[in-house]
Amino acid sequence: MLGRSRTVNYRLDLTKSGLSANDPVAAIGCLRDGAPMKAVFYAIALVTGAACSQEQASEQELIMRAIESAVQLPAAAEPLEEYSRNYALRPDGKVIGVYVLPSPAEARVGDVGCEVMLENFESRPCTDAEEEEIAGREKATADLFGQANQSRWFDNHRDLPMMDDGGCNLIVIIFDPQSQLIQSTKCNGEA
Predict the structure, then answer these.
(1) How far apart are alpha carbons 106 and 121 in whole angstroms?
(2) In terms of domain of life, where is this protein from (predicted)?
(3) Where are the domains of the chain?
């Protein structure tokens, strides 16, 4: 069964009003032209303008902010703040955004028990080394998935977090910087 998906195009005119990487307020201001979004964009512009007055925003930061300001998540998705938001440039020049719900802090393996299945279908308790290996893999996965309400830019699109299935636990967004359109926003499939 395929997960719910919806393809919608949104125009993000990042060149309007002489926009540059040094003008993040204009980047957000150019998105506020839609009447329903006017109040939201003014609030974002004030907050972002204050934060950026001390530090210049990079082109990647501007793209991430623009996408996050304009994206409409699928109906089955959680609120935007619940996701770790991860971005990279694809070889075709488009930006891929992978929004993933980080796993909640799990109980440590030793706290809930760990067993190894043997060839004769019996089991034995995990050794300390096996428990450490499992905890290390869980930490690596948590580091890859990131934290809720965190935006990160990856140098290589192949390093973005991915998972099989998951539905709206993982959302893929495609943004075309040339046309300045969000081309698709889709939840991952489900088995």
Answers:
(1) 27
(2) Bacteria
(3) 5-102+146-187, 104-145
